[in-house]
Structures are given as structure tokens and as C-alpha cells.
């Protein structure tokens, strides 16, 4: 019998990436130069939000999606934070509510007016204080409205109930900075990666660690739940400093199911998973390309499809929710690529080539919609429920009826699990001490400059007074 190659049948093997034309990009945006490993970009079906470079605090732009082209330098900003903004995320159920976190240790909730901003926004509808150090990550619960998670450099994850404006739970199992958080489909489990080189699966309401992996050969950076398959995918670095991905069984993290080396570049690998098509996208920070794979239930689990290539490096990528895609063009995924060197946000559509113009049900199954499945009290009491699904067949035009109502409260001490979070401060790291030292040095130099300027002015005034006294009086 002669050998024959085995071809794998897949409806997504010809998916290709299509970058938008220049007039459909967002140009002239001062994208932040912050080196924090986040996307600095958030997208929903109505707005695009981008963290910008600014002096005297942190700010981000909110632009309606239809307002493409060049953005004016004086375009209104959301600029209420006193420190650099490190992460922003749109509420999945209320399209004009966005959460942000910052180096000023706060998490803030903003309500964007209809049609976008007309003037600078400095007042948040809700300010959340509970972390004792800067806050690096915020994450909304996938099925419950008004539940938000934040991870800070105090090694804590706080669960906020926005209906009361207080932290209701605290996850305190990490021994170093938390790098990434990911919920499973119904929000009953939380996966985290940490700088202590450990991957954890946590029950968020109790804070109990269900599974833990000490990744010695695969130093994890990012993690994502692969839908309802009970598997996790992590990106990281191998012992030879090559970029690597690993697939894990969420119920047994003793050994990864597979490990695969990607390349020898140094940029962080961002994973994106589409549960509807079972496609995985890998985009490297500082790269210009996006690789995509198909995830299977049997070995080899991971099948390479193709690669979108571009000469422009990406700082981060925003992802459009499913109900914001162009179904008529067979678009299955859309990125918003941040190109810092050009000040440009470039949409990239991933398209399945089909000749028929009718609705393609096989590539658009029922998908999580914009209606929450649970209230905060139900979820906190232990109830789990799958997301409410919707069809994309007729196009999604209905606006959510949910309205965000901020609670009225005063600033006070924040006590969770019997611990005052603002008092229980972990020791500062070496990098933080160095940053504090340099800030103090800059402040000392600034004060010295001010004093020298004042001394010069005083001498000028004394000389003018002396000259005035020497003027001869008229008889």
C-alpha cells in the first residue's frame, strides 16, 4: 500500500486577514508609551477606547466607531485619574459603561454619553478604593451584571459589587504580581498567572485554589479558558527563552497536555480564543503578524491554519464582540491594532471566504449576547448559569435596557475578610523603591530650580530698588 498524506478537513483553513483602508482607520492618536503589558485598547459595538499619552495624570479617548479618519489633537478625553491608566474594559451588558484602573490605586467606572464625548470628562460615576498599590488589571464577570474584578500590585484580587460600590470578596493566594486573569464560560472559575511562575485555577467566591501548576519549564505570562472544553491555554517562555504555548486540563495542572515552541522572539504573546469557531489567535507584542490555529478535542489538539502578516509592529490589540461583526462579509473576528509609531488604530477583519451572500449558520452559531444571566446577589450566593445566547442572523441592533445606577457612599476604610486593605500593605519591590527614589530626585531638582529662579528675581528687585534710590531728586 502506497503512503498517502492525510488532509484535515476544516471550514476555517482558508480564513484570511484583511486590514482596513486608511480612511477606515483612526489616525492622529497619541497612543500611550507605557510599557505595562496590556492592550491599552477596548472595543464594543459602539465605541473604541484607547489609552493615550498625557501629562499630569492618566487619560483615554472614547471614539464612536463611525468616526473614522484623523482625530483632532484637542479631541475630548476621559482624564480623571491622577496616575497612568493601565487597563480599560467595556461592560459587556451596558455599552456606554467602561471601567479603568490606574497607578493612583483606584478603579473607576465611567458613563459615556450618547454620541460620545463633547468635552473632557473628569468625574467618574463611581470611584473604587481598596488596593494599596497601583491596579494593573480589571475584568468584568461574563454572565453577571455589576460584578467587576481588579488585580493590584499588592498581590490581591478584589471582587467588587458595583450595586453597593464595595469589595465583597478578596482573593489573597498570590505571592507576587498578578499578570493575567481569565474567566471560564459561566464565570464559576478564574484562572490566573503570576510573577511567581505559577498557574492557578481559583473558585472566585471563596478564594480557594482548586488547581496549581509550578511552571518550571514553561514560565507562564498569559492564560485563557478555551470555552466550555475544560481546557486552558497559556503563553510564556521556555527554559531556552523561546516563546511557547501550552495546553492544560483545568482539572489536572500537574503536566501540560502539549507544549509547542513558536519562535525565538522576545515580545509577549497575547492569546485570543473564539469559542464559536474554536479558533485561537496569537499576536506578539512588537510583532506585525497574527498566527491563528484551530483547537480540536483530540490529539494533536492544535492545528496551524495561517498567518496574517504586516510590517507595522503592534503595541496591543482590541477585540470586537461577536454582535459587532459584519455577518454579511463572513467576518468571524476583528482586531483593532495599535500602531504606536504612526499614531494609528487599524481594524483587521478575519474573514471566511464564501461565495454565497446568504447567512452562514455553520460559522455563526448561537453566541453570548448582551443580557446578563444573573444578578450580583445570585452569583455571590453560589448560583452559576450559562450566558444567555443570541443569534446573529438578523443582525444585532437592539440596545440594552439595563441602566447603571451608581451607589452613593463616602470614602472610608475598606475591610474585607476582617482585613483593612488600605492598611495591610505588602513590602515594596526593588523597582518601586527605585521609581520612588527617582521621583524624589526629580522633585528635589524641581524645587531647587524654583528656588534659584526666586533668588534671581529677588536680586533683580534689589538692584532695581538700589537704582531707584540713586536717582537724583529734582530741585
What does this structure look like?
About 10% of the residues lie in helices and about 40% in strands. The chain has about 475 residues and is mainly beta. Among the domains are: about 15-210 and about 305-390, Methylamine Dehydrogenase, Chain H, CATH 2.130.10.10; about 425-465. Strands 1-30-29-28 form a four-stranded antiparallel beta sheet, with no helix packed on it. The chain has a four-stranded antiparallel beta sheet with strand order 3-4-5-7, with no helix packed on it. The chain starts with 15 loop residues before the first strand and ends in a 6-residue tail after the last helix. About 35% of the residues are buried. InterPro entries: Coronin, DUF1899, WD40/YVTN_repeat-like_dom_sf, WD40_repeat_CS, WD40_repeat_dom_sf, WD40_rpt.
What's this, in brief?
One of its GO terms (molecular function) is actin filament binding. With 475 residues, this protein is mainly beta. Among the domains are: 283 residues, Methylamine Dehydrogenase, Chain H (7 Propeller); 42 residues.
For the record, give the distance between the C-alpha atoms at the N and C termini, rounded to a whole number. 129 Å
What do the pLDDT scores average to? 87
Shape: globular
Low-confidence stretches: 1-7
CATH topology name of one domain: Methylamine Dehydrogenase, Chain H
Number of helices: 2
What is the CA-based Rg, rounded?
26 Å
Please give the number of β-strands. Answer: 34
Main beta-sheet strand count, sense and barrel state: 4 strands, antiparallel
Percent of residues in helices: under 10%
Strand order of the largest sheet: 1-30-29-28
Q: By helix and strand content, what is the structural category?
A: mainly beta
CATH class of one domain, named Mainly Beta
CATH superfamily of one domain: YVTN repeat-like/Quinoprotein amine dehydrogenase
Organism: Mohoua ochrocephala
Protein name: Coronin
GO molecular function: actin filament binding
Pfam families: DUF1899, WD40, WD40_4
